[in-house]
Every structure is written in structure tokens, then in C-alpha cells.
Write a structure and sequence with these properties.
Number of strands: 8
Strand order of the largest sheet: 1-4-3-2
Structural class: alpha+beta
Strand content: 15-25%
Helix content: 10-25%
Largest sheet: 4 strands, antiparallel
Length: about 220
């Protein structure tokens, strides 16, 4: 066990660990908080009724933490060439691998990945609502100059941060360029998160790889 790992668990035993978001604003803006899963409390930007991510998450010392490995999409689209980004389109959601107007391959792969993460968590007795931290690695699609952060964020909102914190109403979210509609899974959780572009991912055709920490 590394020194970093020992320090992490020592902090848990002492009382709490606080994770901060890589893109958080200055501390004066992070003035509100809300309970997440039992054992966790998220710090949110003041005045925001539907923030995408938390400014930080506090984890109580008696909580159990489950950490997934990096998870990428499953190859489901047999109509696409093996190892291409299109081969990892979720055909359960997009019949025949055909994407509706404005839906990007990164968005479709993101939906594929987040469904896999949901299955991974549920197999261990957790849920998407228990997620407190998320790390996202994006590769740019062939011919694109940069990674598709907008497409990833649309996929993310289908499963996370899609409730209004003031009214508790479900927020409608867009898929591609379609009119916003009910999300695939209502979930008030707003984990800390970073998303960054990488030069390549370990499986040919992957544009998205994600790992999460869940707490209960």
C-alpha cells in the first residue's frame, strides 16, 4: 500500500476527507451545501439551482468508499468496423447505431459508459446517487481538433445533476440538438469531477473513459 493510500485511509479514520473539483471557483462562491448519499456532503456554488458539479465533497469517517476502475464503452454496433468510435455506439439506445440529429459519437459513448458504471455500482450495492467523485478522460474523434466536451456533458446530464435543488423538480436535458426531455435517470447527485482531453485511450475506438468513487 502506497504512502498516498495510507494517508487517505488515515484521514477517513480520523473523521473526514474532502475532495475538491479540479475546476472549482474561489472559495467565496462555494457557500451552500447539501447532503448526498449518507456519509457525504457536497459543497455547491451559492445561487445555483442546478449546478453540474460540486465545488467539493466531504466524506464522513465512518463511510464506506467504493472506487471503480477506468470504464470505457462496450462494442455494441456490429454494423460499424471493429475498433472505430462508431462501433462503441450504444445500440440499445440508438437502434442500428444510427444517431439522431446532433447526437455525437462522444455523447453516445458517454451514455454507454455511464450505463456500465451504473451496472458496476449496482452489482456492489451502490447506485449512481452514491457517486461523489468522477474522473473523465476524453479522446478527440478522428478529424476533430479537440475532444467533444459538449457531447460528454449532455451524456452526463442524462444520469447526473438533473434536478432543480430549489424546487426538487426534474430538469429536462437535451440529447443532441433535440428539444430537452426527461433524463434517462433522475439523479440529484453532483459529484466533484474533472474532464480532460488525452492523447489516446487504451482501446482503439474509445473516446470516453470514466472512473468514479461512490460512498455509503
Amino acid at each position: 500500500m502506497s504512502k498516498v493510500t495510507r494517508s487517505f485511509y488515515a484521514a477517513l479514520a480520523a473523521g473526514a476527507v474532502v475532495f475538491t473539483a479540479a475546476c472549482s471557483s474561489d472559495s467565496s462562491a462555494a457557500e451552500t451545501s447539501t447532503d448526498m448519499a449518507p456519509g457525504a456532503r457536497s459543497v455547491l456554488e451559492a445561487g445555483e439551482s442546478n449546478p453540474m458539479i460540486a465545488q467539493g465533497v466531504e466524506i464522513a469517517g465512518d463511510a464506506t468508499v467504493y472506487k471503480t476502475s477506468g470504464i470505457g464503452p462496450t462494442a455494441m454496433n456490429e454494423d460499424a468496423a471493429t475498433g472505430t468510435p462508431e462501433s462503441f455506439v450504444d445500440t440499445d439506445e440508438f437502434s442500428g447505431g444510427t444517431l439522431p440529429d446532433g447526437v455525437t459519437v462522444t455523447e453516445a459513448q458517454g451514455i454507454n459508459v455511464l450505463k456500465k458504471i451504473r451496472d458496476n455500482l449496482e452489482a456492489e450495492g451502490y447506485s449512481l446517487e452514491d457517486v461523489v467523485t468522477m474522473r473523465v478522460f476524453l479522446d478527440n474523434a478522428p478529424g476533430a481538433a479537440v475532444a467533444d466536451f459538449a457531447g460528454w456533458n449532455r451524456a452526463y446530464r442524462q444520469f447526473f445533476a438533473n434536478t432543480n435543488l430549489d424546487s426538487d423538480e426534474t430538469e429536462l436535458v437535451p440529447m443532441g440538438t433535440a428539444e430537452p426531455a426527461a433524463p434517462m435517470e433522475r439523479n440529484s447527485a453532483r459529484p466533484t469531477r474533472f474532464a480532460l482531453e488525452v492523447a489516446t485511450l487504451p482501446v482503439p475506438g474509445w473516446l470516453v473513459e470514466v472512473e468514479v468513487d461512490a460512498v455509503k
